[in-house]
Each structure stands twice: as C-alpha cells, then as structure tokens.
Amino acid sequence: MRLPIHLRGVPQRWQWVETCVLTGVIMGLSHWMVPEDPFLTNMAFPWLWIVSLLLGLRYGTWAGLLSVGIILSSLFLEVQFGLLSGVAVPKAYVIGGVLCIAICGEFGSRWNMYFKQIEERNDYLDQRLQETARAYHLLGMSHHSLEEHLISQPLTLRDALKRLRGMLIDEHDEIPTAAAERFLELLTQFFQLEVAAFYRDIPPHRVETPLAAVGSMDSLQNSDPLIHHARTTKEFSHVMMPQSVSAVNSHYLIVAPAMASNGQIVGWFVVERMRFLNLHQDSLHMLKIFLHYFADGVQAAVLARPIIEQFPECPVPFARELPRLVRLQYELGLDSRVVVFDVNAPSMREEIVFHILHHTRGLDVTWDIRHDDSRRLCILLPFTDDGAIEGYLLRIQQLLRERFGKGFQEADIHVSVRGLYEHDPSTIVQDLVVGNYDRQNIPLLSGVA
Fold first, then answer.
1. How many C-beta atoms lie closer than 10 Å to residue 354's C-beta?
2. Which pTM does this prediction carry?
C-alpha cells in the first residue's frame, strides 16, 4: 500500500515499536554497566546518544526524536525522584544531543524519501519492462504467424493473376485438363485449400468426374443444398451467405461457377474443406476475382473478337485483357486504368516511346498507336488505383528527366488517365483511338504535372 506524500517520512508501526524497544534495551544496559552515571553525562562523549543517532539515520527525524524523548524523559524523571544522587543535567548535553539527533534525523528522512522515490521509479520501470516484454512476445508470435502465412501463401494478387494469364494461351472450346490442374494448384496455394475440385459441369442426375482435384475428394453429392442453390441461381454460393438457411447443413463450403463475361459457364469450383482462417469475406471476394479472370481467359478469343473486328489495329493481348479487367471493374470494383501518353516531340519521339515501353510492369499491356505527326502509347495498368497511378507517372517522369533532362511538359507529352467504367470494352477502345477522354478522364495528379 502506497502512503500519501505527507506521511511517507513518518515511520511505520513496527518502526515505532523497534525504536522504543531498542532505546529501552540500551538504557537498561547503561544502567547495569554504569549505575553511578547511567546517562553518561560526565563522560567526554555522550555515548548514549549513539542509539538515537542511528535510529534517526535509519528511520528519520521522528524516530530519532522519539528515542531522544525517551532518554530525556527517563533522565528528568530519575533526577526528579532522586534516583540519581549528585548528578546534574547539563544544558549542553540536552541541547547538543537534540540538535545532533534532529540533524541526523533530517538527513535520514531525506535519504529515505529519496530511496522510496528510487523504489517507485524502479517499480514503474519494471512494470513498463514487463509490458514491453509482453508486447514483444505478442509481436514475435505475430511475426511468426506472418512468416508461416507468407511461406504458405507467397503469391500476391498480381503474381497470381500473372500466372493465370499464361495458363490459357491457345484458343480452346473447353478447358484443358492441364489448365484446370494448374488453376486448382494456384487456388490451393493462395487460399490454403485442403479438399477441393474443379468440374466441367455438375449435372443434377449424373456423377461428374472432376477435371482436377486436391485432397481426397469424394463423389459429388448432387442433392446437396449448396450445390442445388448454386446450380439454380448460377451464382457464387457459400455457407456464409445470410440468405441461405438451407446451406447450413451442406457438405461443402463453396460451390461457384466460373462464368465468363458473355454468360458462358466454363466450369464449376467446389470446396469441401479449407483452412478455417481463410474462410472470410475478403478471401471469398478474392476467389470471385480468380474465377472471373480465369473464365474470361477461357473465353478470351470470343470476348476479344468484337474489338478486333471493329479495330483491327488493336493488339490481340490488349483486346483480350481489356474485357477481363472491365468486368472486374464493373462487377467487383477492382480498379484498373489506362494511361495514355501522346508524344508529340518529333526529335526525341522514338527514344521516348522506347524508354516508356521498356519500363512497363509485368501485368501491363501496351498499345502503340502511330500517327503521322505523333505517337500515342496506351498502357493498360491492371489493378491500379489513383495512388499507384501517381507513383507510376512520377517514375516515368523521373526517367525522362534522367534520360533527356525534360519532364512531360518540356518534352511535349500529354498524359491522360482513362478509367474502365463502361460496361462495353469497345467504347473504351474507341475513345483511345479518337482521343476522347472528356467523359471518364481522371485529372492528372498535382505532383506529376
């Protein structure tokens, strides 16, 4: 229990008792050893004051004065009742002893106060050290968990979708088994799947063999309520849906169609068991992105055909990637941008275009539109928000300043940023060709201009 400030210099109860007992014992010894002068008043040095001095140094002023009071009270009482014959009480003995004990007691009180402050400070530091140790322990556990998570899921969204882009290069009417296996392997690595399978179809009255499976997947239960809900609604179905009460008794966790932008279902993804910590809304949202992107990759040729027919000069990779990103933007809110560089400087045009194209990122898709007096570079930046756009433009402008000593304005380069907000990709391509950016143009950020 911590005492109030004004009482911290006062001895505690056991210290009062110790002061009285020790003083009494010393006085008893002096009466027994020197009965003719028990208070040692006739000696050159008042040795009896040593006990009061030590008590004052040990417990402070109050303990020293109590010891002095006991000694002087005993002295005056014995003189008054005649127990000390021929002993006079010298004033110097009394005054000098009281002053000496008071000074020593004050020093003891100050030292005790300082010592208590040191103890309180050490207690506070010890408490803070324990709190820091606990926080450090929690940080170590969090770091260990993060390391395990990164080891088990080393891919970022951009890396995973970059691998997805390369899975289906050739045109196929149906998903090849090898592509389905690679796709399921990617999903297993990213979402920590334990038992899952990818089917070409899930007919109601026939047992379908999966194109790819992970874990010991049993035969598909066509009568399962979650499968019935997904097959009926053709929507992404999972056990966490608030409106699906019947899915609580389902044998599966997720049943989702891989549906392309044209409404064609290219396959069905079924999860029977996965890591519990990965079953949350963010993970389900990411899984939707993977399925949409993969399904549009299967139908890439079909989705790109209207763009290629209307704009034959559009590169095939650009025409295939644009519908996939438009759908992710339109349905799932995953932002992507098209950065347009109109390079008008005739003397450095080719070198500027070369350096800009050379510094594109891994997922970026480019379209170089050539005109007689200018070059228009359209850089499709998947999954890029305004902050990433600002960083990209600052990096390109810094590159131009290092190479040519000029920024965008000095090099006569007009920069526009185009969002993918239309549902029809052909409209975006047409705006890129004719240079119409008024409707959906995102203003250039102040740090770049």
1. 11
2. 0.60
